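Trying the structure run again after the queue cleared.
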Amino acid sequence: MSTSHGFKCQLILDERTAESIGANFSLFEDDDQPSAVSIFKSDNYGQSEKNWVAELYFTCRPSDIELGKLKKSLERATGVKFPELDLQDIPARDWVEESQNHLGPVETGRFFIHGAHIPAPEDQARVSIMIEAGQAFGTGHHASTQGCLAMLEELQKRVTPARILDLGSGSAILAIAVAKLWPACITAIDNDPIATNIGQANALKNGVSVRGFGENMPGIYFITADGIPPKVASKEGPFDLIIANILADPLVALAPVIAKSTSHMGCILISGLLDSQKDIMASAYSDVGLGLLEETVLGEWVTLLFMRETSEKDGMV
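Done. Tokens:
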């Protein structure tokens, strides 16, 4: 727990810009970037379109050069020009907890996503997941994550996957969600070792087993890697369900390996997309033998469900 003196930048944003920062959370990974980020809707701005707040917390005062780099990163991620970042002193207190306490629970269907400062519901029918805000993307507040959770709840009524992959797992919120829906062998891949460590800790906090590579038992195997390494695809796969809540460009690039790693009649759930990117994504995945089954749209964000209806022997992938 940190109770040291700290520093904060506060940005007042519209919803789309706030969501873009959340979706590009990896831009906060460098050592000179914020130690915690809190993004929330505020009632303090009336009917203004700019009624979202992003607060960036630092343990050490960043230099003007570092703030300039962060400003450029924010502008690249959002396509929005920002004024010079204004750094505020904050008193000695647990500023990580301060950022977490801004986050209310997320209720999507049966799922109840909450921080430690909010008690889990007593209703045993609810699927409770405790996730704190931190250095790995995924507290459940982003529309792309909510779209995945809604789709997963619907899938539980129709399929029973034995092997599941969460590609770009971040905080492991979706890997934990599927672990609570199915007694499956789950693989969680992220290219950030910090996210891998945080995801593993989150799984254990939520009573989900962490298993080793190739162990045929319910639980999550965590690995830091780019894409889907061949050894993982061959030993852990083929997967009956693949979830990829990342960004459009890597989703297009990964389409062939995702298709090849999916079992016959397996499902692929992709998110992190704007509705305007849906047709490009449907085409890219159709080209590798995956058929679009369903879609969920939340605001400007879309979640797509595909199925692999062919096998390698059919010559489609």
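The chain has two domains: 6-101, 142-314. Worth checking whether this holds up in the mutant runs.
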